[in-house]
Write a structure and sequence with these properties.
heterodimer, A: about 220 residues, mainly alpha, 7 helices, B: about 475 residues, globular
């Protein structure tokens, strides 16, 4: 029964992932943004575990566990601590023109689907149709990084981009070899910690975590 | 596991750990030099072995060293060593001035070693996934160093460096996933499909569409780290605001290492595609970088920023050379990688001392170096002459080869290159000349500057321009054949 509905369930989870990416694009509260990121990690964990079970690719259970530990527990915890210590928990960012951003997002999704088409046709995986969604969520996270001016949302955009890449790897090739996934996870974790240190230094210097202060270095 | 590779990687790792504990002590700089020296010895042993026995696969094919990367390993270990020599008096002066805290110094020394480790892993690994992980690690180790002084500008530079390179390297990961996707069809799932040697063996059967999309992502990703225009925005800031030894290794080594990664992928992509797709892209990005950087040079006021733009220009030239391909152009590209790395780091050493002497990096305020300290003045002047491609320095030889090949293969590009090089010449020479010869009232440095590295590098560049030993020429020729 589940064997039959499995691939469709994976597609459903992919759709949820894409919706979450759009939600992050429009979310103004930093706290909710972190929760959305954790939810995205959760979807990623479920879909990876499901694909592992459907295909019998045992190493994917490892990836799923890694996702759970890193993206659902560790990173959101670090981010929560960060905003608590920075005292920006209830900060609301003023985003200009959310509808326009959403429209650009839709264009990006179409672009991603077109780009993914030749690749998903070649893929032999049951999850091949999710590759386009993965690519779309990478591009949406990228868009989010561009449109934000505060440091913490930029970091979350960066992390969400890595989520999209991870999903792309699961969709196209049932995940990269385990060694590489560990390496990537380590880099992401260290990167997030360094960014955390950074955000503090930025605030120490400017009394704010708005990266709009960082516009001194320009070509004159 | 080959003992040479084990030592090559173990030495900077041990150095990074030891200096994380003792990096703030008075003798930490010497410890840093000692570890770098050990790494250099291992690199020399590796060169000797690969020279005698040919390409080397180690640790169940996880490491691969052939004539293409062994010379970069040697160059990286050598410049790391000379930069460590330069860094010792430089960082002492910074500490005495109170710009770096003991904790900062510990971080600096430890990260310096880990940065060398990351670069050496990128160079020696056979696994394209590990290559990505190590490349990202190289960014992570240097990002805090760029912000070492905690000034407004350095924080901004480091943030930009992190975000831009982070986004860039994410594209490279997507490219790597796509390469794995193409390889998995032929080699099956598992680590084997990410090994460069395996991919190289089956490159003719890889799916061309996937490989071309993958190469675009890889070019954008690793190209950001090479500093190719329009992905270069982080580079001048990171070079100008970090400590000078870091500018020297970023410019002299990291850019080369990122370009090396790109070349490895170019070889596979060329094999998979019948048409010169990768070559055209590399030529285009290279040429744009040369032109844009040349025009930005004359607008600079900060000396380190100006030489950072000069690095973009030279990396563009090298990328263009590899894009043209063929035995002569690839040979010239490899030679230019070597001489640029040596010359540019020598210039940064001289500039570092000059900036410490005068207390500023603004070119208009640095005057009369030749009176205060003739050796620093001459070092900067000769280095500038070398980087501008004056004969008899080695840069002249490689630029001459690139230009003459361009006349034969891509005649349309030749005038563009010549004009850009001319503009760059006028801009840099016009600014460095008054810095060296002019009136000044600056005092002497409290610690004697380390000038051995400057003149060792310049002597090497000079000797490469005058006479290239036959074994070295053979070596470059072999490596050029691999690139195609």
């Amino acid at each position: 029964m589940l064997q039959h509905y499995g691939p469709q369930l994976v597609n459903l989870l992919a759709a949820v992932l894409l919706l979450l990416s759009f939600a992050m694009l429009a979310q103004r509260r930093i706290l909710s943004l972190i929760n959305l990121y954790a939810a995205q990690g959760c979807v990623l964990f479920l879909s990876t575990a499901l694909v592992a079970w459907l295909t019998g690719q045992n190493h994917l259970y490892g990836s799923a566990a890694l996702t759970l530990a890193l993206k659902v527990i560790a990173l959101p915890w670090i981010l929560h601590r960060l905003i608590r210590r920075l005292n920006v928990k209830w900060d609301v960012e003023t985003l200009i023109n959310i509808p326009a951003t959403m429209l650009v997002g839709i264009v990006l999704v179409i672009l991603a689907f077109n780009l993914a088409l030749p690749i998903s046709q070649l893929a032999g995986t049951v999850t091949r149709s999710t590759f386009g969604i993965a690519l779309a969520s990478v591009l949406l996270s990228f868009l989010m990084m561009i449109t934000r001016s505060k440091a913490v949302p930029q970091v979350i955009g960066f992390l969400a981009m890595e989520n999209g890449l991870f999903f792309a790897a699961t969709g196209a090739v049932y995940g990269m070899p385990m060694v590489i996934e560990f390496g990537v996870a380590l880099d992401v974790l260290v990167g997030a910690l360094i960014l955390g240190i950074f955000v503090f230094r930025i605030r120490e210097r400017f009394d704010s975590v708005d990266t709009r202060h960082l516009e001194k270095l320009k070509e004159r | 596991m080959a003992p040479e590779i084990a030592l090559l990687l173990a030495s900077p790792l041990a150095g990074g750990l030891a200096l994380a504990l003792f990096g703030h002590r008075d003798r930490a700089a010497e410890l840093n030099i000692a570890f770098s020296l050990l790494t250099f010895v291992a690199a020399a042993a590796l060169v000797a072995r690969v020279g005698a026995e040919g390409p080397l696969l180690a640790a169940r094919a996880q490491f691969f060293v052939d004539s293409l990367n062994v010379f970069l390993v040697a160059l990286t270990a050598f410049v790391s060593l000379t930069t460590a020599l330069f860094s010792a008096p430089y960082m002492r002066v910074e500490r005495d001035k109170g710009r770096v805290s003991p904790g900062g110094l510990r971080l600096y020394h430890s990260m310096y070693q880990l940065f060398s480790l990351a670069m050496l892993v990128v160079l020696t690994t056979n696994n394209l996934g590990v290559m990505w992980v190590a490349m990202e690690a190289a960014t992570l180790t240097t990002v805090l160093l760029v912000a070492l002084y905690r000034t407004h500008e350095s924080l901004e530079a480091a943030w930009k460096y992190f975000i831009l390179c982070g986004v860039g390297i994410a594209q490279a990961l997507l490219g790597t996933i796509l390469v794995y996707f193409a390889a998995e069809k032929i080699l099956g799932a598992g680590v084997g499909s990410l090994l460069w040697t395996q991919l190289d063996a089956v490159k003719g059967q890889l799916e061309p569409t996937v490989m071309s999309i993958a190469f675009v992502f890889l070019l954008v990703g690793y190209g950001t780290k090479v500093g190719l225009v329009p992905l270069h925005n982080w580079l001048p800031d990171a070079h100008a605001e970090g400590p000078t030894p870091i500018s020297a290794v970023l410019s002299g080594l990291l850019l080369n290492v990122a370009l090396y990664a790109l070349i490895r992928f170019k070889v596979i992509t060329d094999g998979a595609l019948e048409r010169p797709f990768a070559s055209a892209l590399l030529m285009g990005f290279g040429l744009v970088s040369v032109v844009v950087a040349a025009f930005f040079l004359s607008r600079q006021r900060d000396v380190k920023r100006m030489f950072a733009y000069s690095s973009i220009e030279h990396m563009g030239l090298i990328t263009f050379a590899f894009g043209m391909g063929g035995p002569v152009a690839s040979f010239a590209g490899l030679l230019h990688m070597t001489v640029h790395s040596l010359t540019k780091s020598a210039i940064f050493f001289a500039v570092g001392h000059a900036a410490q002497q005068t207390g500023t990096q603004v070119m208009a305020e640095i005057r009369g170096l030749i009176r205060v300290n003739p050796t620093v003045g001459w070092g900067l002047m000769l280095g500038t002459a070398a980087i501008l491609g004056m004969p008899p320095f080695g840069v002249f030889a490689s630029e001459f080869l690139i230009l003459t090949t361009a006349i034969a293969l891509q005649p349309w590009a030749t005038p563009i290159l010549l004009v850009s090089l001319g503009i760059a010449f006028a801009a840099i020479f016009g600014k460095v000349q008054p810095m060296v010869f002019g009136d000044t009232s600056a005092g002497r440095l409290p610690h004697p500057p380390a000038l051995v590295p400057v003149f060792t590098h310049l002597a090497l560049v000079l000797s490469l321009g005058l006479y290239m030993p036959p074994y070295l020429a053979d070596w470059y020729r072999q490596a050029a054949r691999l690139i195609g």
